[in-house]
Design goal:
nine-stranded parallel β-sheet; two-stranded antiparallel ribbon; 11 helices; alpha/beta
């Protein structure tokens, strides 16, 4: 199974709510993502009775078929037994099952499912009750920081450290889709310097280049939403990568890992020794010249390959020198030809 490695970017593809409450659609996402090379497939575990109420105001009736937001969460939820099957299917496909809980009840379910770690969404960073519940499991936490300023994040980090929690932080902008001026790539290094923990990037830009840039800037974890087509209905469709884009991004990131792990010594010219000889040039004369002619800049040409005459970079040493022999046009110019 592709689990987190210290020397490899941990790539998380989030299905989130893209399944629209359909197990058939959910499983089709797992099948498609298994072909992309991602490490983990992420879900959101919503247990309506434990996390919401009929008074919740956010996105009421946005899906047209739900009278309340509470009804939407009911439609988005699955039974514990269904989650068991989902987790087993992800693992059978070689990917880690990762899930964000939004209630203590969801943590109980995820513990019963024996998850390896927990993802904390940006909206739950201030939910210390939930954090306490997860910390008590002893599992690592991946914490998105999208809604937090530094003071708020300091408080959460202090809360986590006081309990010896194993955690990572993800730079995240809670804006869908995120525009380039709001990526906050600079925050990756700022988080590393401030807290000295592994840092990742939770992306909502719907651009492959953003993830590549984040890893280049030091992110060791990358999370992004996925969708079959950005034109389909769903709360995250416009801020997601497609399955094909995901496959391309994973390939690019794995190549980038190799590049970052192999710094090039600019002073090591050994790999280019033969190429230099092939593409380097030697001095030649560009016209018929008689013995005794005093060479000028206008008499010279540089011709391939290197080593058949005076090196072209040393042209200045022949200026003002006399030819000892007649030289035909385009003939190489050697030290024996001049005095």
């Amino acid at each position: 199974m592709n689990t987190m490695k210290s020397n490899s970017v941990f790539i998380i593809a989030e299905i989130g709510q893209a399944h629209e409450g359909s197990l058939g659609l959910l499983y089709s996402y797992i099948d498609a993502l298994a072909e992309t090379g991602v490490n983990a497939v992420k879900f959101q575990m919503h247990i309506a009775a434990a996390e919401s109420s009929i008074h919740e105001p956010f996105r009421v009736q946005f899906a047209k078929e739900d009278a309340t937001r509470y009804a939407y969460w009911q439609r988005m939820g699955f039974t514990f037994e269904q989650w068991q099957e989902i987790k087993m299917y992800c693992e059978a496909k070689g990917m880690e099952f990762l899930c964000s809980p939004f209630s203590n009840k969801a943590v109980d379910w995820l513990e019963a499912l024996a998850v390896k770690r927990y993802k904390i969404g940006s909206g739950e960073v201030f939910n210390h009750l939930l954090l306490e519940k997860i910390i008590q499991t002893g599992k690592p936490l991946l914490v998105s920081t999208g809604m937090s300023n530094w003071d708020e994040l300091d408080a959460t980090v202090a809360f986590l450290r006081a309990r010896n929690a194993d955690f990572s932080l993800l730079q995240c902008t809670t804006s869908y889709p995120t525009t380039p001026d709001r990526y906050g790539l600079n925050v990756i290094q700022e988080l590393k310097a401030r807290y000295q923990v592994p840092v990742g990037f939770s992306d909502h830009s719907a651009q492959k280049s953003t993830g590549i840039a984040a890893v280049t800037m030091g992110a060791s974890i990358l999370e992004f939403h996925v969708v079959f087509d950005r034109r389909q209905f769903g709360p995250d469709s416009s801020s997601s990568l497609t399955i094909d884009e995901t496959k391309e991004l994973v390939l690019a990131l794995r190549q980038l890992e190799v590049a970052l792990a192999n710094p090039v010594d600019k002073n090591d010219g050994a790999p280019f020794h033969e190429l230099k000889k092939m593409f380097g040039k030697s001095l030649a004369v560009n016209k018929d010249l008689k013995a005794g002619h005093v060479l000028t800049f206008e008499d010279l040409e540089a011709k391939k390959p290197m080593g058949y005459g005076i090196d072209a970079k040393e042209f200045q040493k022949v200026l003002g020198k006399k030819l000892i022999f007649d030289k035909p046009q385009w003939d190489f110019l050697t030290d024996e030809d001049i005095q």
